[in-house]
Design a protein that fits this description.
The protein has helices spanning 4-12, 16-22, 30-37, 49-55, 70-76, 99-103, 115-127, 145-151, 165-171, 208-211, 235-249, and strands at residues 24-28, 44-47, 64-67, 85-90, 105-110, 132-136, 159-163, 176-185, 195-200, 216-219. It has 251 residues and is of the alpha/beta class. The strands form 2 sheets. A 6-stranded parallel beta sheet has the order 7-6-5-9-8-10. Strands 1-4-2-3 form a 4-stranded mixed beta sheet. α7 (115-127) runs parallel beside α8 (145-151).
């Protein structure tokens, strides 16, 4: 059975201010919770008996647990279709080091607003072996429940940093690649395996202040060239195309 206080806490974590107040975020589903448990232990778990029978032994004694009925799980869950387990984890606050970009490829996000896009980009970074995402403070919170679900567990391996982005890019002394509609064809440009790939806001693109730090302007051409097409790509889709081309060149 789950208490009213537990239900209130879980649902309060839909809001950023309560996530920051408690230092906790919500993760749901066997796959996501299992991925995150490989990195850190949850502070609280509410689950159906079958999940606890399989996974309960791997939980530390410090983790509070409630065994739920399907109806209780529906009331606890933030999802339309609950998936066996709801868990609360401590939020991470990774520290940024300029050497991350000097030695590796990093993603920089400038004002990305949609939590789904944030989570999907985190998942993409994990797929392409990018361990650090540096974000402007205007970006959506990666610990928003929708963002967390969209990461599909990539948060266990990708560090997301919220920083004064222009300052970070300006002092980096590494290549800073930005995507623009008036940029140069990405398939004809020299691409390094360190530095930043900057992706901008869904509607406004890269802000003028961040644009000043860009050292190479890239463009993803449509096909066939000259054909009337959509105005732009979704930021997560564009990120996947750009990262794939960088990694293809690095093989």
């Amino acid at each position: 059975m789950i208490s009213k206080a537990r239900l209130k806490l879980i649902h309060s974590l839909e809001m950023r201010k309560y996530r920051q107040e408690h230092g906790l975020f919500v993760a749901e589903g066997p796959k996501l919770v299992g991925e995150l448990m490989a990195k850190s232990s949850p502070v609280y778990v509410a689950a159906l008996p079958e999940w606890l029978e399989t996974n309960g032994a791997s939980l530390p004694t410090t983790t509070d647990c409630d065994t739920l009925t399907p109806d209780e799980l529906r009331r606890a869950s933030l999802m339309q279709s609950p998936q066996m387990v709801v868990a609360l984890f401590k939020m991470d606050n990774p520290q940024w080091d300029d050497n991350f970009a000097r030695q590796n490829l990093c993603i920089a996000l400038d004002g990305v607003q949609d939590p789904g896009n944030m989570g999907t980009i985190c998942r993409l970074a994990d797929w392409f072996g990018i361990e650090h995402i540096v974000c402007s403070r205007s970006c959506a919170d990666i610990y928003n429940p929708k963002a967390v679900q969209a990461t599909m567990g990539a948060l266990a391996r990708v560090n997301v940093h919220y920083t004064p982005l222009p300052q970070i890019l300006r002092r980096a002394e590494v290549p800073v690649y930005g995507t623009f509609l008036d940029g140069e064809d990405i398939y004809n440009q020299t691409l390094q395996q360190h530095g930043f790939i900057v992706m901008g806001n869904e509607g406004k693109g890269i802000s003028p202040e961040v644009e000043e730090t860009v050292t190479a302007r890239l463009y993803i051409p449509n096909y066939p060239r000259g054909r009337v097409t959509t105005e732009s790509l979704n930021v997560a889709i564009a990120t996947s195309i750009v990262c794939a081309e960088f990694r293809r060149r690095g093989q």
